[in-house]
């Protein structure tokens, strides 16, 4: 009988200790209080299990950080022999979507390997590369994979980037469904939001008084409320932890994804700006109207386990406000753990 009493006690002693760091949470609260918007943060130091959770269990729009689970899904299919990184996809005009990257300016008929598309999606946050990969593996299959294999809860349905546009513009008027992807690319080229709305109204062939939102910004905010492409900072950090612990991919593919995330073209003015020079940071950023995110894995120089961090912001005055808050969060991590 004694062994059954002692065993649970032993298991309790050797299980990972998750300690909520109240001191760091106070610092994050101060950053949030001084920020023009709202911020959600979930940090875990895998060395000692310390956790910092500031609004990390709330739902946040994830923007392009959703490209991490897409990348994991692609690499998992490579491991399972369902595809090769050398497989090729041909760019069609219908694949093109506005946003980051330059693939929407390339000629239809251009051929890209899965490896190249993966790198463009992660390094350049290329929207067209992302949608080509999502369609290649299937949107339904992607979301089932996320729920079954990555995190069972905390990440809502992920869609193509093009569908994001249809959903957001659809908040203005149902005629948005008649837009072509090339219409949407042309709209993105109009930087003035009022002028963009004028052109959108013209293309949809509706009157302004028929719109269901005052402007494009309001339409995107209504879209965010629907929950698509959203998730908690806790779920994102759990996913990053499991990734670096090798729970999803073999060592070769885990290293490949981390190496790609270390050299992304964005993010220099966010968390990374608050970290000491020379610290490795494998990251992904995301930005859309009134929304910004930065998630990643920080590798201390000492022989220590990494730190996973997920941060998103909303409703700020300017993007630079969010980037400054992210930088300050990086500084808090540096001061306490690096």
Topology:
Elements: H1 2-14, E1 19-20, H2 22-33, E2 38-45, E3 50-54, E4 59-61, H3 67-79, E5 88-90, E6 111-113, H4 114-123, H5 127-137, H6 139-150, H7 161-170, H8 181-188, H9 193-204, H10 216-225, E7 230-232, H11 233-244, H12 251-262, E8 280-288, E9 291-299, E10 307-314, H13 319-337
Parallel strand pairs: 1-3
Antiparallel strand pairs: 2-3, 2-10, 4-7, 5-6, 8-9, 9-10
In words, what does this structure look like?
A hairpin with a 4-residue loop joins strand 2 and strand 3. This protein is of the alpha+beta class. Strands 1-3-2-10-9-8 form a six-stranded mixed beta sheet, sandwiched between helices. It has three domains: 150 residues, DD-peptidase/beta-lactamase superfamily (Beta-lactamase, 3-Layer(aba) Sandwich), CATH 3.40.710; 84 residues, no CATH class; 57 residues, no CATH class. It has 13 helices and ten strands. The N terminus is likely disordered.
The coarse silhouette is: globular
The third-level CATH topology of the largest domain is Beta-lactamase
Rg value: 21 Å
The CATH superfamily of the largest domain is: DD-peptidase/beta-lactamase superfamily
If you average the pLDDT, what whole number results?
Answer: 93
Number of β-strand runs? 10
Distance between the termini: 47 Å
How helix-rich are the residues, as a percent range?
Answer: 40-55%
The helix-strand sequence is: HEHEEEHEEHHHHHHHEHHEEEH
Alpha plus pi helix count: 13
Identify the CATH architecture of the largest domain: 3-Layer(aba) Sandwich
CATH class of the largest domain: Alpha Beta
Which class of secondary structure composition applies to the elements? alpha+beta
Largest sheet: 6 strands, mixed
Low-confidence stretches: 1-17
Number of structurally distinct domains: 3
Order of strands across the biggest sheet?
1-3-2-10-9-8
Strand content: 15-25%
